[in-house]
Structures are given as structure tokens and as C-alpha cells.
Design brief:
The complex is a heterotrimer of chains A (about 230), B (about 425) and C (about 325). With about 230 residues, chain A is an alpha/beta fold. Chain A is built from 10 helices and 10 strands. In chain A, helix 3 runs parallel beside helix 6. Chain B has about 425 residues and is mostly helical. Chain B folds into 2 domains: about 350 residues, no CATH class; about 80 residues. In chain B, helix 15 crosses helix 16 and helix 15 packs across helix 17. The longest helix of chain B is centred in the middle third of the chain and has 33 residues. Chain C has a single domain, classed as ABC transporter involved in vitamin B12 uptake, BtuC (Orthogonal Bundle). Chain C contains 13 helices and 2 strands. In chain C, helix 1 packs parallel to helix 6, helix 6 crosses helix 7 and helix 6 runs antiparallel to helix 9. The chains are: A alpha/beta (about 230), B mainly alpha (about 425), C mainly alpha (about 325). Chains in contact: A-C, B-C. The complex binds adenosine-5'-diphosphate (ADP) and magnesium ion.
């Protein structure tokens, strides 16, 4: 059984169900990537795993414990961290304050973690006093990821971390994410850039209309001709 | 089902009015009825804004006051001496004001953008303003000194007072258009704040511009759309009528006058109600409610939400203006100091929320119920306080204080009722009919 | 000499009163803007909250006075202030629990909160009038002047005198201290930063484990403190009358919107902008121009742009201009 698993989740925002029997999971130190067309329910699945919407069947397990009933805040305390797709920084607060807010639940000394984040994303160290709202798109995404890392999570969930950034910055970000995974953190990530993402993924999920269409290792999905044709542009 | 419920509530209202008629007096009962009718119209106006479109107007008082102003400006006889003294000056200063505004607009449109333009616009504005005041102040001083005890103002046009009702509506609608134009489309709070501000200013103008409204000296003796009691009492047919009904002529004349008013008000209420219902059921009304229920998607569908909100806001304010003119007509006098936000803004809101926002029948019912209890709460409150404090010594300071404060309790009770209905029964006594959209 | 007289004249009738009034508005607007930033609605009950807090301060002041406790030259009200703040905070927290909390859980539309706040406003209105009555109340004591016009004239030999009231001095000093403390709190403390984070991005604040209930509670307490302080300073400077406080709502909203709703720095700037405009527009410049003009010439008219009866229409016009030209305010507040 995987370290984090959202199992057979069915639910939505109160109206019609968006997710149907959807399962996504990530293992320790592993990168799991979710791809699929726009509106497939990828973000919804992430929110369901993080407890931001109600699922009326299925469950979410973390490290063997059923956390389906926990609030998002309680999940943060359990070692999960989430970088939403949009508005994922505090725009009128400085970079450093953003990181401090990420560590809000911690009562120990957070300076070491801040230094680690600056090591991972050196540009943030240079701009620590600048407001996050004034940074470029790529830098903002780094702040968002850095903020999520401040709780020293065991699981990091990222919703389209490379949306709207240049290809060079994207590669850079993927490298950093691999680095994070190397430290033993499980990564569950939604990506629009399916090719590059599956390339670094240990495991891949293709979602369509709220259902699992394909599930396999990243490599296998890349090699699957059906997946290539329908989702990777040939 | 809803039909029955409507009928039931209005039947209860009627019974209550009859009880007041029997046990207090028919005169009182009819005065309450007349104000219920006017309140119902105001509530309809607010319901058009809030119920149809979700617009929060905190300036109902101002629009009602504009209606009152119209009643004076239309119906009172002009004061020729005052016109001779300063009428020309007032008109001239109005022209100067208009010229200043046009000057600023022309400068804004014609000159190249930059500091120089801003400086010129400000200069035109300030100089124009001083010129305007230079003409205006002596003119109004002259007007106000013409027989100050009796007139001291320009008077009105001397037209039938009924005309003031639609004109009052137009006046209120015009002001609403300006306010709406600026604040609609921004966050909903801004409309609330701006309407609060404009209503305070309208009332301040009416209190201070004696040359127009006589300010706190009030305008008394407005012409009436119905006969005077005194004339009735002397008319032979009326004496015969009251004799045949076995009524005292004096009392019956006052009842008869109130009945005349009630008839007029009822006619207006029915007309506005009918129009509102037609509008609500038309494609226009359906679209309004669709916008109210989901502004985002309506915006996405390309409906011009701001323009439609402007329409509703102006229409609703016009209805309030009409009711305001009717109220001043009924009072027979304009007393600017009587415009209190509690009575004119807040109470109407309680009517709409209690009655059932979005439902015209509910608004009318709310107007009746809330006004009735607003009037009857005073004797009840005093009686209650009296009973509660009866154990205390006659000369106890606390007792005197409590009795004095009973009036404030009434406000508080209304506030509590609003909060309770909003919380526990947000759809009101007669909920909006939904279902078949 | 003439020039000096003109300057003193302006200082006496414009600068000093506007600084004091501006400080009072700034404190009021700070409360409104904080509530807007965190709870996301315009609190129409703020003026009456000021009245309520001030009333509590007045009652304590009277009590202290009756026991012979005072602060010598300073008004006793300063001593009563913490007690008034505590009572006001308690009341405001109770209204949050009884009224606003429900709508927060419902994630109700902002306009519903505004209506609810109007309801609270009228309840407060009733309570204040019920307890202390609708009339003017005097509660200022201690020394009245820091600088008296007469001694100023004797001292400088100028024609014009300068008066600085104790209440004006206290107002400005208190405002500076309070604002400094507030900004220190918002920028330096964990709780303060969490409030800013909540205001910036509520969802992300929740994801970061910030406790919304605590943020809301602290916000109400600060708003109550600001309202009580602003109201007491205003009452000391002018007088306490419940209806005046309701009318203060308009300049306070105008100040908050001019500065950009949700932006604390903006609220302070907005307070002074409104105060200076209001006083400068309703000031009669006749004497000033008389000093400035060469020779003995002096204008015939008062040279007053607007009568003082219309002073609050100044805030209204400024408000409309800002909404027309720059709806986010001078300092860029939250979205329109
Ligand atoms: N907050 C919401 N409320 C209601 N429906 C939503 C909400 N967010 C997304 N949806 C709907 O859920 C479906 C899936 O959306 P989403 O999970 O954002 O897709 P993806 O991230 O795969 O592009 C879409 O049909 C979308 O319209
Ligand atoms: Mg998405």
C-alpha cells in the first residue's frame, strides 16, 4: 500500500459529481504525476485528497492511517503540504514572510528550513525582502513551493507548478522537484506539460472526466501508443 | 397554497386594523392604514432593488425626501415678491454653475493631458464656484428676507399636488441614476456607502437651503388632493350623508377625508404593484433574477449586468420617490428635520426583509405588518415599561430613566427583528416563488 | 509680519484642528479597513461601535471622578480607556458570535454581512441611547489648553493667536502611539503576520494552518480598541453625542476608501486627506487673504467655499471622485 492514497474517490463541489471512483497515490520518495485534458478533474482530485471538498465514497489514507475525515489544516499537521494551482502566495507579504507563514504550525526554530529553501531556490534568498506579488511568475511558483516545504512535509502536492513559466524555468523547477523527492518526500503533481512530467515520474495517472483512464509507470505511459496519440500529441 | 397564505396574512392585518378601530378609534385605524399603504409602496420600491437585483440601498430616506421636496416645489403657490427679490439671481447662479461644469468638461476633453490641464480645470472650477456663490448668496439672502415669518422662500409652481407624485419619482430617479452610474459595477459595499452619503446630503440641503424649502421652519399648508374637513362639515350633502349613517359630522368628516386618501393611495399601490409584477414575470424580470442568482455566469453570458442594475436601481428609487411625495401630501407639510434614517431607511428595510425579499406581495405585507407594529409598539412598550417598573418607587430615578428610554427600545427591537429574520427566516413571511424559471 | 500672522491664522484654524480630526478619522478608518481586509465587509456598525465604546469610557470616567480619582492635568478618560476597550471588545465579540459567525460559516455574500451590520448598528444605537440617552455628555476634565491664544500673542507679539487644546495634543500623540503599535503588531508578530496573510489570501492561510477563528477574534478586538480610542478622542476634542458618531461613518468610510479599503497605511493617509479637505473647504479665507493681500485691502465676502453645515458632503464628494477615477484608492486596496 502506498504512503499516500486517495482511493476510489467519488464526489464534487455539491452539484453533480466530478470524480468517479478515482484513485491516485504516491509512495515515499516517489514522484506521481497526474495528467489529462482540461476540466478532467485533476485539480478536483488533488483537493479531494487534501480534504478541501467532500467525497461521499472512497477514502484517503496517509501512512496507513485513514484521514478522510480530517480538515485540511489537520492534514497539514500530519505532514501533508499543498501548492494550489492559482493564488498560491501571499502577494503583499515579503518572500521571507511567505515562508514564515508556511511554517505557521511549527513552534521550533524554522531558520534552518528557511536556509534550506534558499539553498534550493537561491533567487528567493536574494529577494527575501521583496513582496511576493512583485515577483515574476517562475519566482512566485518557487515561493509557493518553498512555502509548502516549510512544514517539512512528508508529502508534497503540487497543482500545475509550471503553469505559465518559460521552458527553461520549467526544466529548472522539475530539477528542483526531483531534488526534493530525493530527500524522501513523496510528490503528487498535476501537470499540463505531460511529456516532460511523465519523463521524471515514477508513476503516472491519466484522468478523463473524473475517472482513471490509464495508470502505469511514467515510462510505460510514455511508451503506450494510445496514451501518446490521445494525450501526448502523437 | 400560497394564495391561501397571502389571503390569511392580509386577513389578519385587516382584523388587526378593525380591532384598533373598535377599541382605540377609527381615525387612528385609518391613519395607520394610510401609512401602511405608503410604506407598502416604499417597500415595493426597495424590493425592486433588493429582491429583483440584490442591490443594497442605504439611502431610502434621501429618495423619499426628494419626493417630499417635489410636493412643495409643485404644489405650493409661487411667492412673487421672493422671485422679484432673488429669483433671477438663483437662476443666474444655476447658469453659472452649469457653465462652470461645462467649462471643466470642455477643458478636460480639448486640452492635452498633463499638469497644465489639471491646473486649468481646477482653476475653472474654483473661479466658477466663487462666481456662482457670489451671485447665489446675495440672491438667497434676499429671498429669505422676504416676509421670513410666512414665506422667505421661492414657493412652488402652484400646480395640483397629485402632479408632484410622478415628479417626485422623476427627481429621485435622476439622483439615483447619477449615484448608480458611479457606484454600480464596483463592489456592492460601495453602493451602500454612497447611498448612505447622498441621503444625508439631500436631507442636509433640505434643512439648510431655506430659500427652497424654508429649512427647519417647515412648509405648512400644502394643497390637498382631497377636500378639507371644514368644507365637508359645512356642505349640505355631507351633513345629510353623516346623518343618514348616524355619525357625528365632525368625526365623520375626518374619517371621510382619510378614506379619500386611502382610496388614492390604494390606487397607486395597485398600479405600481401590477407594473412590478408584470416586470418581474417578463423576460426582463427573469433575466434580472438570473443575474442576481449568478452574476458571474450572467456576466460570462454577455449580459450587461451593470446597465441592468442601473435600470433597477433607478426604477426602485423612483417608486420610493413617489411614495415620499405621497407621504408629504398626506402630512400636508414638509418638515425636513423629520427625515431620520431610522424611520425612513431602516424601517423600510425591515419591512422588505420581514415580508419576503423578492416577493412583491411579501413587500406589501411587510409594509403593513411592520408599520402597524411600529405604531402600536409605542403604547405597548410604554405599558410594558410601566408594568415592569410599577414595583419601583414613584420618584425612582431608574424608573424615570427606563420610562424615558422606552422609545429607544423600539429601535432596538426592530434591529433585533431584522437580525432574527435575516438569520432564521431569510425568505420572510411570504417567500419568493421559485421553481419554474 | 503680515505673512507670519497669516500663517499662524492658518495653523490655528486649519492645521491644528485638521491634525486632530484627521487622527481621529484615521483611527476610525483603520478599524473599518482591518475588518474589511479580514472579514471582507464594510462594517456599518463601526460608528455606533465608537459610540458604544466611548459611552463605556464615559461611564467609567464618571465613576472615577465620583471617587476622586484623576490624572491631574490629563483627562480622567485616559484612565478609563482600557476599561472601555475591554467592554467594547466583549460586546463586539458577542455580536460576532451571535451574528456574523453564522454567515461566515455559510460563506454568505458580502452584502448579507453589510445588512447584518446595519442591523447590529441599530441595536447598538438603541443600547447606547437607552443607557446614556441621546444628548450631549461632557466628560472632559483636567487642563484645557497647552497653548492659549492670549499668552501666545503676548509671547510673540503677533496679532493672531494660536490655541492648542490638551485634547488635540493628546489626540495626535495617542494616534501616533497607537498606529506605531498596530504596525509593529502587524509586521513583527506572528499573530499580526497571520492576520495579514489571512487578509491577503484566505484559502492559502487556511492551508498553512492559520486558525481563522483566532484571526477573526483578534481583528474584532483590535477594531473595538481602535473604535473606542477614536471615539473617546473625538468626544474629548468635540463632545459626545450618539448621533454624531453615526454621522462620522461617512467621513470614516470615505477615508478608508480614499486610502484603499483593506490597506492600513491608506486608511491613515485617507483620514488626513478627508480631515484637511473638510476643514479647508469650509474655512472662511477672508482674514487670511486680508493678511496676504498688499495694503489694507480685504475681500468683502467670507470667501468660504462651503458652509459648515455641509462639511460631510466634502467627504462624500471625495469619495465619489475616488470611486470614479481610482476605485482601488490611492494606496491600492483590495479588489473593487
Ligand atoms: N469550485 C468549483 N465549483 C464547482 N465546480 C467546479 C469548481 N472547480 C472546478 N469545477 C468543475 O469541475 C470540473 C473539473 O475541474 P478541475 O478539477 O479544475 O479540472 P482540471 O484541473 O483537470 O482542469 C470542471 O467541470 C469544472 O467546471
Ligand atoms: Mg486544474
Amino acid at each position: 500500500m502506498s504512503f499516500l492514497i486517495g482511493e476510489k474517490m467519488t464526489g464534487g463541489y455539491g452539484g453533480a459529481d466530478i470524480l468517479h471512483d478515482c484513485t491516485i497515490a504516491a509512495d515515499q520518495g516517489e514522484i506521481a504525476v497526474i495528467v489529462g485534458p482540461n476540466g478532467a478533474g485533476k485539480s478536483t482530485a488533488m483537493k479531494a485528497v487534501f480534504g478541501m471538498l467532500n467525497i461521499h465514497s472512497g477514502r484517503v489514507m496517509l501512512d496507513g492511517e485513514d484521514i478522510t475525515a480530517l480538515t485540511p489544516q489537520a492534514r497539514v499537521a500530519k505532514g501533508m503540504a499543498f501548492v494550489p494551482q492559482t493564488s498560491n502566495v501571499f502577494p503583499t507579504m515579503s518572500v521571507e514572510e511567505n515562508l514564515e507563514m508556511g511554517a505557521f504550525l511549527r513552534r521550533d526554530n524554522i531558520q534552518e528550513t528557511i536556509d534550506q529553501v534558499y539553498e534550493l531556490f537561491p533567487i528567493l534568498g536574494d529577494k527575501r525582502r521583496q513582496n511576493a506579488g512583485e515577483l515574476s511568475g517562475g519566482q512566485r511558483q518557487q515561493v509557493a513551493v518553498g512555502r509548502a516545504l516549510m512544514t517539512q512535509p512528508k508529502v508534497l502536492m503540487l497543482d500545475e507548478p509550471t503553469a505559465g513559466v518559460s521552458p527553461i524555468v520549467m526544466d529548472e523547477l522539475f530539477d528542483r522537484i526531483i531534488e526534493v523527492a530525493r530527500t524522501g518526500i513523496s510528490i503528487l503533481m498535476v501537470e499540463q506539460n505531460a511529456r516532460q512530467a511523465l519523463d521524471i515520474a515514477d508513476k503516472g495517472y491519466v484522468l478523463v472526466q473524473g475517472r482513471n483512464r490509464y495508470t502505469d509507470t511514467g515510462q510505460a505511459l510514455m511508451n503506450n501508443p494510445d496514451v501518446r496519440k490521445s494525450f501526448l500529441g502523437g | 397554497m400560497t394564495m391561501n397564505r397571502n389571503f390569511l396574512y392580509f386577513a389578519i392585518m385587516a382584523v388587526l386594523l378593525v380591532i384598533v378601530g373598535q377599541f382605540q378609534s377609527w381615525n387612528l385605524s385609518l391613519s395607520i392604514l394610510n401609512l401602511c399603504l405608503i410604506s407598502a409602496i416604499m417597500a415595493l420600491g426597495v424590493n425592486i432593488q433588493w429582491g429583483y437585483a440584490g442591490l443594497f440601498n442605504v439611502g431610502i430616506m434621501g429618495f423619499a425626501a426628494l419626493g417630499g421636496l417635489a410636493a412643495v416645489l409643485i404644489s405650493m403657490p409661487p411667492v412673487p415678491a421672493a422671485w422679484a427679490a432673488g429669483g433671477g439671481g438663483v437662476l443666474l447662479s444655476a447658469l453659472a454653475g452649469a457653465a462652470t461644469i461645462i467649462g471643466c468638461i470642455v477643458a478636460y476633453a480639448k486640452l492635452p493631458k498633463g499638469r497644465a490641464r489639471s491646473a486649468i480645470i481646477v482653476a475653472i472650477g474654483v473661479i466658477g464656484f466663487f462666481i456662482m456663490r457670489g451671485i447665489f448668496v446675495p440672491a438667497t439672502d434676499a429671498i429669505e428676507s422676504v416676509d421670513a415669518a410666512k414665506t422667505g422662500y421661492l414657493g412652488g409652481l402652484g400646480l395640483p399636488v397629485i402632479l408632484a407624485w410622478p415628479i417626485g419619482g422623476l427627481l429621485a430617479g435622476g439622483v439615483a441614476w447619477v449615484i448608480g452610474k458611479i457606484t454600480l459595477g464596483l463592489r456592492s459595499d460601495y453602493l451602500a456607502i454612497a447611498t448612505l452619503g447622498i441621503s444625508e446630503i439631500i436631507v442636509a440641503i433640505m434643512k439648510n437651503e431655506d430659500w427652497m424649502t424654508r429649512g427647519v421652519k417647515n412648509v405648512n399648508g400644502l394643497p390637498r388632493p382631497v377636500p378639507f374637513e371644514i368644507d365637508l362639515q359645512q356642505a349640505e350633502w355631507f351633513q345629510n350623508l353623516s346623518a343618514s349613517l348616524g355619525q357625528d359630522v365632525v368625526i365623520f368628516s375626518s374619517i371621510f377625508v382619510k378614506l379619500c386618501y386611502a382610496g388614492l393611495f390604494l390606487a397607486v399601490l395597485l398600479a405600481i404593484f401590477w407594473l412590478s409584477e408584470r416586470a418581474l414575470k417578463s423576460p426582463w424580470g427573469r433575466m434580472m433574477r438570473a443575474i442576481r442568482d449568478n452574476e458571474v455566469s450572467a456576466n460570462a453570458m454577455g449580459k450587461d449586468v451593470t446597465w441592468r442594475h442601473l435600470q433597477v436601481f433607478v426604477l426602485g428609487s423612483m417608486v420610493v420617490g413617489i411614495a415620499g411625495a405621497m407621504l408629504t401630501t398626506l402630512d400636508g407639510q414638509l418638515t425636513p428635520a423629520s427625515y431620520q434614517p431610522l424611520r425612513f431607511t431602516f424601517l423600510i428595510w425591515v419591512m422588505v426583509i420581514v415580508g419576503g425579499s423578492g416577493n412583491n406581495m411579501g413587500a406589501v405585507l411587510g409594509g403593513f405588518v411592520v408599520w402597524f407594529f411600529w405604531v402600536e409598539a409605542e403604547p405597548i412598550g410604554i405599558w410594558l415599561m410601566d408594568t415592569l417598573t410599577s414595583g419601583m418607587a414613584e420618584d425612582s430615578g431608574l424608573r424615570a430613566h427606563l420610562l424615558d428610554s422606552a422609545a429607544h427600545m423600539r429601535l432596538m427591537t426592530m434591529g433585533v427583528i431584522l437580525l432574527l429574520v435575516l438569520r432564521f427566516s431569510p425568505r420572510g413571511l411570504l417567500p419568493e416563488k421559485t421553481g419554474h424559471h | 509680519m503680515e505673512l507670519l500672522n497669516a500663517l499662524i491664522l492658518m495653523a490655528n484654524f486649519v492645521l491644528v484642528p485638521a491634525l486632530a480630526y484627521g487622527s481621529q478619522l484615521a483611527l476610525g478608518a483603520l478599524g473599518v479597513t482591518l475588518i474589511y481586509g479580514i472579514l471582507r465587509f464594510s462594517n456599518f456598525a463601526h460608528g455606533d461601535t465608537m459610540a458604544f465604546g466611548t459611552m463605556a469610557v464615559i461611564l467609567f470616567t464618571w465613576w472615577f471622578q465620583s471617587m476622586g480619582i484623576n490624572l491631574g492635568p490629563l483627562p480622567t478618560a485616559l484612565l478609563a480607556l482600557p476599561f472601555g476597550i475591554a467592554i467594547c471588545a466583549g460586546f463586539v465579540l458577542a455580536t460576532d458570535k451571535l451574528v456574523y459567525k453564522f454567515y461566515r460559516q455559510q460563506r454568505a455574500a458580502p452584502v448579507i454581512y453589510v445588512i447584518a451590520s446595519v442591523g447590529v448598528m441599530f441595536v447598538l444605537n438603541g443600547i447606547v441611547r437607552f443607557i446614556i440617552g441621546p444628548d450631549d455628555q461632557a466628560f472632559a476634565d483636567g487642563e484645557r489648553f497647552i497653548v492659549r491664544a492670549r499668552s501666545f500673542k503676548e509671547w510673540t507679539g503677533l496679532e493672531e493667536g494660536l490655541t492648542i487644546k490638551v485634547s488635540q495634543g493628546i489626540t495626535v500623540i495617542t494616534a501616533v502611539l497607537v498606529v506605531a503599535a498596530l504596525f509593529w503588531f502587524l509586521n513583527r508578530t506572528r499573530t499580526g503576520k497571520s492576520m495579514r496573510a489571512f487578509s491577503d489570501n484566505e484559502d492559502l492561510a487556511l492551508l498553512s494552518g492559520i486558525n481563522p477563528d483566532k484571526v477573526v477574534m483578534v481583528t474584532w478586538i483590535i477594531a473595538a480598541a481602535l473604535a473606542t480610542i477614536a471615539g473617546t478622542l473625538y468626544g474629548l476634542d468635540k463632545s459626545f453625542k450618539p448621533f454624531t458618531y453615526f454621522q462620522l461613518l461617512l467621513p470614516i468610510f470615505a477615508a478608508a476608501i480614499v486610502g484603499g479599503l483593506g490597506n492600513p497605511l491608506g486608511a491613515i493617509a485617507g483620514g488626513y486627506v478627508i480631515a484637511f479637505s473638510e476643514i479647508m473647504v469650509t474655512y472662511a479665507y477672508k482674514k487670511f487673504i486680508g493678511y496676504m493681500a498688499p495694503g489694507d485691502w480685504s475681500p468683502d465676502s467670507l470667501l468660504q467655499l462651503l458652509g459648515t453645515n455641509y462639511k460631510f458632503s466634502v467627504s462624500f464628494v471625495i469619495l465619489l471622485l475616488v470611486l470614479l477615477l481610482r476605485p482601488t484608492g490611492l494606496f491600492k486596496g483590495k479588489s473593487v
